Task: structure prediction
Amino acid sequence: MTHNASDIDALLPLPAATFHILLALAKEDRHGYAVIQDVEQRTGGEIRLSAGTLYRSIQRMLEQGLLRETRDRPAPELDDERRRYYRITPFGTAVAGAEARRMADLVRMARAQGLVPAKA
Amino acid sequence: MSRFYSALLHLYPASFRAEYGGEMRSILGARLRETSGTLSRLKLWVETIADVVFNAAAVHWDILRQDLRYTARTLARSPGFALTAVLVTALGIGANTAAFSVADFVLLRALPYPDADRLVKLWEAQDGGRNQVSPAIYRQWKTSQSFESMGAYYTNAVNLVGQGDPWRLETAVVTADLLPILGIQPMLGRLFIASEEGEGATGPVVLSYGVWQAQLGGDPAIVGRQILIDGNPRIVVGVMPRDFHFPNRDIALWTLIGTAGQNDEDISNTYWEVLAKLRRGVPHKQASTEMDLIARRLQQQYPDDMENVGVLVNPLRDELSNQSRLLLLALCGAAVCVLLIACANLANLLLARALMRRKEILVRTALGAGRERLVRQSMTESLVLAALGGALGVAVAYVALPLLTRLVPTTLPIAQLPSIDPRVLVFAALLTAVTGVGFGVLPAWRSAGRVDIAGMGLGARSGGGRRERARSALVIAEVMASVVLLISAGLLMRALLRLQSVDPGFKAESVLTLRTALTGVRNDTTGRRIPFYRDVLSGVRAIPGVSSAAYITSLPIANMGGVWPVIPEGQALTGARADRASSRFVSPGYFTTLGIPLRRGRDVSDSDDANQVWIAVVSESFVKRYYPNEDPIGKRFKFLGTLRTVVGVVGDVRMRGPEQQSEPQVYLSYKQVADAANTFYSPKDLVIRSSVPAATLIPALRRVVQQVDPQQPISNIKTLSAIVSDVTAARAVQVRVLVAFAAIAFLLAAIGIHGLLSFTVSSRQHEIGVRMALGAQRSEIVRLIMRQGIFLAAAGVLPGLAIAYAAGRGMQTLLAGVQPADAVTFLAAGLLCIAMTLVGSLVPTLRAARVDPATAFRSDA
Result:
């Protein structure tokens, strides 16, 4: 599947859960529960994805081509065969980047209006 | 714990559950291990349940949105299919909703009174017929124990003067205990009280909402005020609510029966109708048994008059003629036929489509789409079609309903326009939805069941076998139902034509009629009325274009007039009710005006007044009955209390309309109305034969009446032709509706044949190509396709004829003598079906004949 810029724009802004899942998968493949734990850690316990929200998001992200399931499994002693591992696609990376830029732009605009304190 | 969660996960679609259920369970397990303390665990469970409910709904919604988008795309790609399916559904749902709304309203729904199921009407029953009752007999009936209350009434018409134009209004004259039986409270004021019955012609009046609004301006302070009815001042004591009608919706006001009427001892003077309410817990049967006992007692008491007279206890709900009931049932039968045909057609469309899409479904299955998803997708599509059809169907019903109001009989105390019945609508929509789901989804289910990659090579050719037989059966059923409808409509149309061509005994064309009812003190003797007739008639005859004019008690067909016993001179009264004739008082020139032929003797003349011999002009059937083989002129008979001498004989008139035999007729001189007799029978209908259009005549007529008596209202202005055609109006409406239904059914059946054959041709293109390549002639190909068309038609028509015959026998009483096996109708229906088959097969046959072997091979490559 090839994607272009308009495909990316069509998905923005991303739902918060989707963005957090992309962040969790940015560096390494993870299974579902690991995604939940990663999001929880990174946000200091503030965001705790429910199982339903997670898999509903994952199903949609698979359809949209942001993720794919991977057959690469960790070492057997660490693996649980019920688990499915997900990997971010290049399109997913591009979408996450676009979303991050969109938010950065928003923050810059807010800062110009004095709504956010300037960087220390 | 985990079993509960597994059960909870069933809220998700099966595909989602299969994909993620295991992981979701293990996540919950991990969470539960991390959580300690009852309160925290409880909190986790609450969160989990909320999570499943919310996300499951969201997943379903996502799928629905996808499916709706997909449906919109596929339907837009085949607009012909979409449009046909929606129209077919709409016609089926619309026709049914309209027909059943009327039927339910007239036949089933409880009447708008509290405890309506306990309301009954009581009639004198004799020889299978029924009659009103005399006040004296009513008083005997009232002694029965089965009823909580009983009241009597008769209907009359009165003049309301003093509020602008004089008005002619229908009234019900009631006993004080009548209105309370119905249990409806007046909107303003009160009902009658028993002590007011003595007040007679100056007693109180209760108004209907209609007359209060239209004639009295909705005056909120009307209660306690006086209005002038038939020249008598009466006090308004109450106003009834808007939706109250009794005994029928024409009644504008209610007045009390005076004491004089109630004390009438003449038991042959039967003009009261009786309404009663069964005691709570007393079954209808028990009341009937008690009334039978009373009837037997009355038979012993009055052996002459009451011989064979029983009592009929009839639920108020059932107070409508068998004919109205049958008309409506026939209509419902037709509507069901249309719905079934619509469903069959829809099924056929969807089956054809499913076959065409088999390849697509196989591809999608091979690509991993689950059966559940495919079925769900088809279901969404079917439901969207059914919903669109249903919405359009409501529109069809709204348009159709007012056309059916003529089928609401006036004899029931209900409003004229029924409302659309949502239950019927939902029922019809459900039926089409079930059809849609059944025939749209099952094929998808079955195809998706086996991942049959080999099937992909088959293309759309693989339509044969069982499924083609199913489709043929559906088309055959459609043809059958349309034949039944066609013949039923045809039979009723023939009946209508026959009734319309029945000679009523007079010439209705170019005759205008209107009513000037002479009531009140000013007109209470014949001597006072005669100058009015004389002046109006001479004024009317002077209007240019009028060739003749006359007065009569009441018009034939429209009103019954009066029916009285006949006692030829020298004979004793043999059973008071045995020999009766209808009576009319007429002015000279009546027979000429209506074109009734004078067979012997002379017309009524202006010199036939009360001081001369009291004369009668009688009909031919009267002569046949009483003076067979004798010269009737000069013979005398007792009628309406006086000895009358026959001076003339005229042709018979069908007083009761084209469908019923009439009693023999007696016409009396308008100057020989006994003063003691009820003024109700004095002439009031004016008939005018003219050579100018009725509309141009009306202003001049009004002026004439105005000049003679400015306070005299004019009502019921109508042409005699309209009165005659009104009799068959309900039938005409029904025939029109049935013909429309039959036409729809016919069209649908033709579409069915066309669709099936087209499909056969395109799916057998390959085979046809092979045959042609192997040397088959085009004529053989044409024969091949035509044979299928003829088979479909014949297989539908033959059982259709048999069912139509049975249906015809079922409604024989509606057929006015037309035979249920009427050859003309059957032949016409047969020919139409042959024509339909030919037209339906034409295009597919031509296409088959034009198949080019080379293209046929390539099309599947």
